[in-house]
Amino acid sequence: MADAAKTDPARGGARTARVLIAADKFKGSLTAVEVAEHVTAGLRRVVPDVGVTAVPVADGGDGTVAAALAAGFTRHEARVTGPTGAPVTAAFALRGDGTAVVEMAEASGLQHLPAGVFAPLTAGTYGTGELLLAALDAGAASIVLGVGGSATTDGGAGMLTALGARFLDAGGEPLAPGGGPLRELATADLSGLDPRLARTHVVLASDVDNPLTGPTGAAAVYGPQKGASAADVAALDAALAHFAAVLGSAVGPEAATYAAAPGAGAAGGIGYGALVGLGAEFRPGIEVLLDVLGFAPALARATLVITGEGSLDRQTLHGKAPAGVAAAARAAGVEVVAVCGRLTLPPEALDAAGIRRAYALTDLEPDPARCMAEAGPLLERAAERLARDFLV
């Protein structure tokens, strides 16, 4: 991380130009750290001694642990159960003050499924619970649970099972993994949850605020992305509703309250499991990560913020990292520009989000395949343009 200073000619030498790069990954092409590296290289071709601070960011989905590691957290690994039962190696991040960042996609994400093979009814979150246990064993006193990119729609039942809960069918047998078997749930018992959870502050960090069930719930909105057919979606939605109803007998009326709460439907309903079982506090993922990653002190020193992600589109405006970065910067009175792979937002939407201008790689290379394959060099060229527009 570099942090130098330069007189800004555009301001008549009156102020020091300090650039803060706070961008998310370009999914499929560059990590958030690599985005910052390429942007820095491009800027310095035009303004060699420009001051740059990099704070790679994420919104709670895949890339969240990598962002924490870039901010100085320590990497830890654990061997856990993947979404279809095969063992996988998953990482979490831990800081000296006991703050852990756990990314459920590390244990239960789509990347752990064979290419093109989905398991919408049977994929489970047991490994995420194991990863939380590993964080507790490593000394975590507070946990940021970033959710997104999941292969699962089990309401967090697998996660809670790994943490000590019991979910039994009418014959008293443990349920099989996945969201489909939840329709067979007869009794739920959360009394065996690891006692350390009661004294651990858990934050559910997500970029979506869907409820557990219904037309905007976990199965209806996100099930098709995980290979669920229309029949599967209906079955999963009914199973999740049954799950919440049975939990009502175990934890009381708050089970229904949590099912309707924002974030309950995140990542196949693992948000619900975190709310009802772990006492988690739901917060927008980018808001949480900006706090954890030390964004505010870096912003206080910046005169220009560069944010971005692979695609700046309508979804960006609903809780994605660039929107959160831009909102924080605008509140501090710092100008924001963005870099991206592709741009589908009109100028007025960018302006409303607090982004002065966006530089898309597709403006330099319209072929999407080449754009992704050559994302690093193209990003450096885009950063050169940005530097000429805003730093000289």
Explain how this protein is built.
- With 392 residues, the chain is of the alpha/beta class.
- It has two domains: 6-57 and 301-390, Glycerate kinase, domain 1 (Rossmann fold, 3-Layer(aba) Sandwich), CATH 3.40.50.10350; 64-286, Glycerate kinase, domain 2, CATH 3.90.1510.
- 37% of the residues lie in helices and 19% in strands.
- The chain is built from 15 helices and 14 strands.
- The strands form three sheets. Strands 1, 2, 3, 12, 13 and 14 form a six-stranded mixed β-sheet that branches. Strands 4-5-6-7-10-11 form a six-stranded mixed β-sheet, sandwiched between helices. The chain has a two-stranded antiparallel ribbon with strand order 8-9.
- α1 (32-46) crosses α15 (375-390).
- The longest helix has 22 residues, at 230-251.
- The two termini are 23 Å apart.
- Residues 1-15 have low confidence and may be disordered.
- Belongs to the glycerate kinase type-1 family.
- This is Glycerate kinase.
- One of its GO terms (biological process) is organic acid phosphorylation.
